[in-house]
Amino acid sequence: MDDKLFNELVMSIKDAGRFLRGESEPSRTFDVKAIRQKNGAFTNANCKHDWRKSDNLAKLGTA
Q1: pTM of the full structure
Q2: For the chain, how far is it from start to end, CA to CA, in angstroms?
Q3: Are 54 and 63 a contacting pair, CB within 8 Å?
């Protein structure tokens, strides 16, 4: 792996650790619900399939 990419990865992991320990705040946050509404992305209300139902899972061979 390229040294530059490796160092970026290490810094990212350290940042994540500080965030998880509560030592720092995330640099940015996202309002996923607003993004989905703006882009017309599916929600549970208009989703064609509910894969949590056992008959749908059976079709996938996972039930």
Answers
A1: 0.44
A2: 41
A3: yes
